[in-house]
Amino acid sequence: MRIEEAEEAIRSLLPEKRFRHSVGVSKTAVKLAKKYGADVEKAGIAGMLHDIAKYFSDADLEAAIRRRADISNDFLEYSDKLWHAPVGAVYAQEKLGIEDREILDAMTYHTTGRQNMNLLEKIIFLADYIEPGRDFPGVDEVREVAAENLDNAVYLELQKTVIHLLEKRQSVYPKTFEAYNDLVKKIQ
Ligand code: DGI
Ligand code: FE
Ligand code: FE
Ligand code: FE
């Protein structure tokens, strides 16, 4: 699959605003891939597809998580906002024929992160947060750090996300903490 084919695949599945977000993530991921030496085509495809399951119903998302032995059922114990990520990867594999493990993992972990994220996983995780359409307090700081050091930017995103969740009295998926603990060791 090429980036343009990925764009066509999401067009009918996402409302206009989410479609534009996905194009923004794809373009940002391509830029980060060029800067940090990742596979540019994979970054563009994973960025385009990352939210493909965002508008599936909770019932469908839950059914997919239960059906697939390779998606941890512990997602169901946490926020339903997490569910579209692993289910999107399964959808990309089953319906779009994507078999590339790096693309599928980048999609699976784009929301929560995890420890030992590889280059493509970090790029998609970060691109989702800083694409040009995002506008929330602190995003410009992360954009600036992203231009300098990938791990520092991923760390900052995780720090802001965890603080945000705690302030809103929301649960934090364990892999998000694991990603934070991993990156805090790697920052400069
Ligand atoms: O799908 P997007 O809106 O583009 O972004 P996303 O997939 O990164 O979703 C982020 C949302 O998930 C954000 O509103 C925070 C929420 N969330 C809920 N629980 C957790 C969580 N995010 C992380 N990283 N970890 C959690 O435990
Ligand atoms: Fe998402
Ligand atoms: Fe995210
Ligand atoms: Fe997204």
Automatic annotation (TrEMBL):
Q: Which UniProt keywords apply?
A: Hydrolase, Iron, Metal-binding, Nucleotide-binding
Which GO MF terms are attached to this record?
bis(5'-nucleosyl)-tetraphosphatase (symmetrical) activity; metal ion binding; nucleotide binding
The catalysed reaction is: P(1),P(4)-bis(5'-adenosyl) tetraphosphate + H2O = 2 ADP + 2 H(+)
Highest taxon in the source lineage: Bacteria
Keyword rRNA-binding attributed: no
Query: For this protein, what is the EC number?
Result: 3.6.1.41
Q: What class of enzyme is it?
A: hydrolase
Q: Where is the HD domain?
A: 18-133
Identification of the protein by name: bis(5'-nucleosyl)-tetraphosphatase (symmetrical)
Highest classification ranks of the organism = Bacteria, Bacillati, Bacillota, Bacilli, Bacillales
